[in-house]
Amino acid sequence: MNTSLSSTVPLGSPLYEQVKLAVLAALAQGEWKQGEAIPPEKHLAERFGVSIGTLRKAIDELAAENILVRHQGRGTYVAAHTRNHHFFKFFRILRQDGHKSYPTTELLRFRRVKASAEARDKLGLAAGAYVFEFLNMLSLNGDVVMVDDICLPESRFPGMTEAHLRERASTLYALYQDVFGVNVIATDERLRTCLADRAHARWLGVAEGAALLEIRRVAYSYNRQPVEWRISRVNTGRYEYLGHEPWEAGA
């Protein structure tokens, strides 16, 4: 596999951006796995026909986005999901006093079904495609706070079972990575309010018709390939959504 610049980028892009997109294309094709080292900068510069400086600028951007990780004296590696502060890049619910904690999760439902029109649209699937749908109830500090309705394309998660979800040792995104080779690197989230239906009122311990925060998320792997569609409903009585830390990029 040898991704070229001309086949992966828009014409007129800055050269380092072309290199960056070519590296992302190689990652999307599985050329380098999570936790593995990418080739030395000299080899990549020769492969893409650019200077070391241009190559480094592309790699620097990918490192800043936590897609690659530099290890002094060892090289540059594909980032891997671990149970550390990167978890909170994707989990944005915290107690109103600012306390962050990892959620405990209870699986409420798991099934394989034909994708709905909305799921096909969000995940870029053809008519008749199958997805795995599952419902998770999340608790923080002993409080049931959130219910996630998650949809995954079967084509990206072949052979997924209920046991995969119930018996996973770490986070959901770590499961995607370790078992199915799918690395989530970015999300697009849209927020709105909704009213609790009977089931969500029971799960979240609120009155039917109570206002909830609704988070609609598409999660992406390399080259903005959609790999997960979820709708989360949150009881904000004691908890809130943190858009970004003030020191994060773009703040």
Walk me through this protein's architecture.
The protein has 251 residues and is α+β, with helices and mostly antiparallel strands. The chain folds into two domains: 15-78, Orthogonal Bundle (Arc Repressor Mutant, subunit A), CATH 1.10.10.10; 87-241, Chorismate lyase-like (Chorismate lyase), CATH 3.40.1410.10. Helix content is 27%, strand content 31%. It is built from eight helices and ten strands. It has helices at residues 15-28, 41-48, 52-64, 87-90, 117-123, 162-166, 172-180, 198-204, and strands at 68-71, 75-78, 93-95, 104-114, 130-140, 143-153, 186-195, 211-221, 225-234, 239-241. The strands form three sheets. It has a six-stranded antiparallel β-sheet. A two-stranded antiparallel sheet has the order 1-2. A hairpin with a 3-residue loop joins strand 8 (211-221) and strand 9 (225-234). Helix 2 (41-48) crosses helix 3. The longest helix is centred in the first third of the chain and has 14 residues, at 15-28. The radius of gyration is 20 Å and the shape is globular. The two termini are 38 Å apart. The model has no long low-confidence stretch (mean pLDDT 89). This is Putative fructoselysine utilization operon transcriptional repressor. It comes from Achromobacter pulmonis. Residues 13-81 form the HTH gntR-type domain. One of its GO terms (molecular function) is DNA binding. Keywords: DNA-binding, Transcription, Transcription regulation.
